[in-house]
Amino acid sequence: MDLAYSPEEEAFRARLREWLAKTLPALPPKPSPDDWPGRRAYDLGWQRTLYDAGYADVHWDASPTTRLIFLEETEKAGAPYVGAGFVGLLHAGPTIAAEGTAEQRARWLPPILRGEEVWCQGFSEPDAGSDLAALRTRARREGDEYVVSGSKIWTSHAEVADWCELLVRTDGQAPKHRGISWLAMPMDAPGVTVRPLRTLAGSTEFAEVFLDEVRVPVANRVGDENDGWRVTMVTLSFERGTAFVGEVVACRRVLGEVARQARANGVWDDAGVRRRLGRLHAEFRALWRLTQWNVSEGEASGGVPGVGGSVFKLRYSRARQELYEVAAEVLGAGALDLGCEWVVDRLSSLSYTIAAGTSEVQRNIVGERILGLPKG
Amino acid sequence: MRFRLTEDQRVLKSGFREVLARRFGAEELRGAVDGSGALDRWLWRELGEVGLFSLRLAEDEGGVGLGVPEAVLVFEEAGRALLPGPLVATHLAAGVVPGAATGETVVTAVGGGGLVEWLDEADVVTGDAAGAVPLRSVDPLTPLHRVPGGRSAVRPDDLFVLLTAAEQLGTAVRACEAAVQHARTREQFGRPVGAFQAVKHLCAELLVRVEVARVAVYAAAVTLDPVDIAAARLLADEAAVRGARDSLQVHGGSGFTWEADVHLCLKRAWVRVERGGSITESEEMLAGDLLIDAS
Prior knowledge:
Strand content of chain B: 5-15%
Largest interface: A-B, 56 and 54 residues
Number of helices of chain A: 11
Radius of gyration of chain B: 19 Å
Mean pLDDT of chain A: 92
Oligomer: heterodimer
Strand order of the largest sheet of chain A: 1-4-5-8
Helix content of chain B: 55-70%
Low-confidence stretches of chain A: none
Low-confidence stretches of chain B: none
């Protein structure tokens, strides 16, 4: 058991730090959250910058520890996060890399790495959110094409995406976890309509996607026909295992800022607030250790992260919400001012116990798959 | 970075778990609860023989020559077994108090909260226990005395707090295992109660608290940073106390009886919360650190 990084890992960190210090000041200003084309250009531009510097594939090919260092350092330096590249870099890319054919890897992976194509995720449906396998979007096979009809919801970046990792039902007779296939659907195909959804935070974070007789080549199917559920589980384990590393670093930074703000405006004199801040400090320190633990275990087992990600997500999503509750207490009346970043983040934090599998679903996963309790 | 157990550490932990299962299993635990209330000196010497007390003592001083992380692992197992006695105090006295390392001498200490465990049974007391008054201890396996002046008089040192946190972690593990075992086997309405989401979710939260406490305790054992240790004790206390309470809830009516072991977990966890010193102080220390180190 140790927490020391190897000389190679420390050398990577030092090189990265130096590069970030040189590169970040030259970045263009961040576009507004509602400027989707601006966000796309900004996020892809950052990915291209990473590509040119040799850091593009850090999410895929680097050792888990190297990746941890990358996420830690970029977040500490205030570098952009994956943004519009999120699904491509963290879901679809790893899934295609693990399950795709040589041709599929050659077609889709390089543009993701070079920051040329944006992916979105077509998993959830209006009537199948947490019960993902109840999805009803159907794909009928006609020759070497699937004809897809249905609708998807909570699709982030849909407005500017080139591709959608799409789950469709290819066999309506099979039990619901079978009969699903994983397709790469071009978002500019005829029959695709995107309707932005406004979140309670006021922004259009995601959209509804309507699919009306959309033709997708059979060659775009990743994994076997009707084997999409297994492929999806691979995708979701990536999502839960590694997607929040940078955010934990960010939360630790925000917690320090909240404490300093409390000291500046006198709320610090309230022992109750100090005690809550102290508890959150313990919490985020432990979440960082849990991240390091999961990464080390992942490195030892050599690859796909396991269900331990559910433990992390359950605790992290709640801690994040508590962080912004304390921030609101520190802000006082300022907690009602949407001009303050923490207020918007407080609203956004409400999604964390819902998105990527609700906390209730995560508890089922922990109960059934880790503790071996019977299914209800 | 290799923040996981080494093969040697795994073997040490599971080996110690086996020793305790053989020597202090469910039957011995009940025997101790229903027994005379005396400390089992025979067991104490056996614990000395397997190296519980001399674990961190250098080999040329007759010790095992291991470090704090290894000590944390065996104290986690001691906590899981609900092993009674002033284990941490005796361990910390090894190499200082003659006979402590081998388990010939039982050493207790004035802990945080101004409480002394097993005072009448101990051969040596670390700290000032003058004028100590016995309490009717809530924990049937931890006799307690209170020293005049109370908690303000005592600030336990970091290693004392950390090894206590390791014991709390182990007790949290036990509470979780007991809850899961009960939820798997106890049937109501024609199926195991663990199939009901309300019960399943209690069990899941038990495990989440265990795992968060575990990494906090293990990391603190590696860094020995006082802030890490304060974090570890808060999370381990929470995992043990909340864990025992939730486990009791999962056990239903039987959990409220003397026959179920759950109350032993809860009461021991309460004792150790006091031993670790004031929770408020740990929270204040962590809060203060935010102003120093925001990273």
